[in-house]
Specification:
By secondary structure, this protein is an alpha/beta fold. A hairpin with a 7-residue loop joins strand 1 and strand 2. The chain is globular, with a radius of gyration of 20 Å. It has 14 helices and eleven strands. Strands 1, 2, 3, 4, 5, 6, 7, 8, 9, 10 and 11 form an eleven-stranded mixed sheet that branches. The model is unreliable at about 315-320 (pLDDT under 50). The longest helix has 15 residues, at about 120-135.
């Protein structure tokens, strides 16, 4: 997609001349499950040697995102993340119950990122508004929350938070439709304090939680053909390993300096996003292929594809 040629959004087009989605509309429409994508920001951990990128810094608010970008939220990440949410998250976003609680005062929309450039780059911001209006027209948005069992609801004290009306997306005044993906015990427990309504529903996968079955059901029930996975690295990795995550959009940042990341103290393996040379194509993201890259100042806005294990209904016919 070209913002300039397709929509006349020339200011946005100067930053992102092309916006690539990893699957065609035809392929997505023929899939049995929704096409799923996720996004991250990653910072290089040093100026020399083999490139190692991390996506989180322990014991820093919000995982240290501002440290990863050198103390400010940069233009490239703000624009790339905004367009990602507009294009791939306009119908549904999926988060973990943990993320729901950690970000209980937050609504998952593109303005979370776009507002950071509203004053500094008003023309680009206005183009983002126009893009959202053009592609989101007629789309019914649904927030998906993964809470695998009653243990998840209990551990996070979601009942108490609901009683005190502390979870913003569950506040009826915002009119957000929320679907909990859970098992039988999760539904039995949660429906007592959060009953089904026009805004709240449950998709139950049986006595055990099954992500594949949940995706089949959400596609059949609501015709949901795209999901933006914003559940955190652990959840998105587990969905990817099931073959249900098609793409990942990553803004790679240069080493922001010792004052933000000390390369001698960032060896937490669980925080590593990628290492140069580990990708299928020799890139930095393991098990992935880079299909597009846009340089925005000193940032790289990259799109990676993962192999989908769930074939579309039309796959066999198309590949005979």
């Amino acid at each position: 997609m070209s913002p300039s040629n397709d929509y006349g959004l020339y200011n946005l087009g100067k930053i992102l001349p092309e916006i690539v989605i990893g699957a065609s509309e035809e392929y997505i429409s023929s899939m049995k499950v929704p096409y799923q994508a996720t996004s991250y920001i990653g910072a290089r951990t040093g100026n020399t040697g083999k490139a190692v990128y991390i996506y989180k810094i322990n014991n820093r608010p919000g995982g240290g995102v501002l440290s990863l970008t050198g103390g400010i939220r940069k233009l490239g990440d703000s624009v790339f993340a905004s367009t990602h949410r507009i294009l791939l998250g306009r119908k549904s976003m999926m988060i973990s119950a943990d993320n729901l609680v950690v970000n209980k005062e937050h609504i998952w929309n593109w303005q979370f990122f776009g507002n950071t450039i509203k004053k500094s780059n008003p023309n680009i911001y206005e183009d983002l508004v126009k893009l959202s209006e053009k592609v989101g027209k007629g789309s019914e948005f649904r927030q998906l929350v993964v809470a695998r069992s009653d243990k998840t609801f209990r551990r996070l004290n979601i009942a108490g938070l609901c009683r005190e009306n502390q979870i913003k997306i569950l506040d009826p005044k915002y009119g957000i439709k929320v679907t909990f993906l859970t098992n039988e015990s999760g539904h039995e427990y949660a429906s007592k304090f959060l009953p089904e309504s026009d805004l709240t529903e449950y998709i139950i996968t049986g006595t055990k939680f099954d992500m594949y079955l949940a995706m089949i059901k959400i596609r059949k029930l609501h015709g949901t053909d795209m999901i933006l996975n914003d559940g955190g690295r652990i959840m998105s990795n587990s969905v990817r390993d099931r073959g249900l995550l098609g793409e990942e959009r990553i803004t790679l940042e240069p080493y922001p300096g010792d004052q933000f990341i000390s390369h001698r103290s960032n060896s937490h393996q669980q925080n590593v996003l990628g290492i140069e040379g580990t990708g299928i194509d020799g890139g930095e993201i393991e098990n992935a292929i880079k299909v597009h890259s846009t340089r925005i100042n000193d940032e790289f806005a990259n799109v990676y594809l993962y192999p989908l294990k769930v074939k579309s209904e039309g796959y066999a016919k198309m590949h005979k």
